[in-house]
Amino acid sequence: MSVKKKYLKTWVEIDKSAAEHNLKTFRNVVKRRSKLMAVVKSNAYGHGLFAFSKMIDRSGVDGFCVDSFTEGAHLRREGIKKPILVLNYTFPELFSAAKKENIILSISSREGLERLKKLSPAKRPDFHLKIDTGMNRQGFYAETVSAVAEFIARNKLPMKGLFTHFSSAKNVENTAYTKKQFTGFIEAEKKLRSAGLDGFTHHVAATGGTLISADYHLDLVRLGIGLYGLWPSKELERQLGSKISLKPILSWRAVVGEVKEAGKGSFVGYDMVERLNRKTLLAVIPVGYWHGFFRSLSGIGYVIIQGRKARILGRVSMDIIVVDATGIPVKSGDVATILGRDGAEEIKAFETAEKAGTTHYEFLTRINPLIERRII
């Protein structure tokens, strides 16, 4: 492989055709006429908020879910016209700005409703009400829903949606808790309708819930990790992977900055934790933990060079890793694959994250947002 653009030491590639494949896959999974919302919070799970959102917008997704008003406003500046739902807390001082930008907020506390009430009707943004059905994070508990519904109806607040979030939908061996949460959500919805509220969107499913049952599709589904071609859990992949095809869309590459030979007995990197037991060809790669490559991969992680895996030697530094390239025909300027495929070899996010002692969610979102994302 060769570098197509000069002077980039590391970059992330986003595979457009794989993303379109995943979107089509979920169109087929969602049998009802549910809308598909792309969850692009946290820099689109590390895939690049702007690059990924504009690409998937053109591919036909129905709307976007973001973490903050700021993310939503940036998408509006980038020309995104479709619905945008903020999933997390929004400062009340930004409510009127959300109205102006046509960004839908999530309201999950009485304080949020009170601040909304204080605004003139013309400045009140549309919102989705969040119900806490058992995750014990954001949202109104079931016993408060009747009073909340009465407050919304009496003050004519612009509630356009109702939603909850499942705690463990990706755990296919314990579906009882997800079913309990769903039952609680339906009961809360009945209370809202009994108070005279109607015509709102309702939704419960992220990727896991979307895959395990059509009962959870409702008016829309919130597609995060699955849209990026990854499974929420290994258990879910084992159960459904033969029926549903997902393709990872992200590859992370870097250049080989230097190649040198070190003798037997030499130490590599900080703190003398790795001593070579033979003469070794070293490839020095300008990527480190500042870029999002976990320090816990020191000595156990791999990259791919010229279609062959090369183990990391010694400590992962702030901006550098050194790998054992013995037997690989490598030279300065060649490309190393940190995540993704090169030839017959592949480094997967899930397995790499497991080695690092974390999840593929965290590993991907930790890739430094300053690294360029390229659509290929």
Helical fraction equals 25-40%
DSSP strand tally: 18
Average of the residue pLDDT scores:
97
| Shape annotation | elongated
CATH topology of the largest domain: the name is: TIM Barrel
Low-confidence stretches: none
> Helical segment tally?
12
Largest sheet composition: 10 strands, mixed
Q: Strand-and-helix sequence, N→C?
A: EHEHHEHEHEHEHEHEHEHEEEEEEEEHHE
Query: So what's the CATH class of the largest domain?
Result: Alpha Beta
What is the terminal-to-terminal distance? 14 Å
Count of folded domains: 2
**Any idea what the CATH superfamily of the largest domain is called?**
Alanine racemase
Structural class: alpha/beta
Proportion of residues in extended strands: 15-25%
Taking all Cα atoms into account, the compactness measure Rg is 24 Å
Proper CATH architecture of the largest domain: Alpha-Beta Barrel
GO biological process, one term: D-alanine biosynthetic process
GO molecular function, one term: alanine racemase activity
Domain Alanine racemase C-terminal: 249-376
Pathway: Amino-acid biosynthesis; D-alanine biosynthesis; D-alanine from L-alanine: step 1/1
Model description:
- The chain is α/β, with parallel strands linked by helices.
- The protein has two domains: 16-240, Alpha-Beta Barrel (TIM Barrel), CATH 3.20.20.10; 250-347, Lyase, Ornithine Decarboxylase, Chain A, domain 1, CATH 2.40.37.10.
- The protein contains twelve helices and 18 strands.
- It has helices at residues 16-29, 41-45, 49-58, 69-77, 95-101, 110-118, 145-154, 176-194, 207-212, 234-240, 349-356, 360-365, and strands at residues 10-14, 35-39, 63-66, 84-86, 105-107, 127-130, 159-163, 201-203, 220-223, 250-255, 258-262, 280-285, 302-305, 308-313, 321-324, 335-342, 345-347, 373-375.
- The strands form three sheets. Strands 1, 10, 11, 12, 13, 14, 15, 16, 17 and 18 form a ten-stranded mixed beta sheet that branches. The chain has a four-stranded parallel beta sheet with strand order 4-3-2-9. Strands 5-6-7-8 form a four-stranded parallel beta sheet.
- The protein is elongated.
- The two termini are 14 Å apart.
- The model has no long low-confidence stretch (mean pLDDT 97).
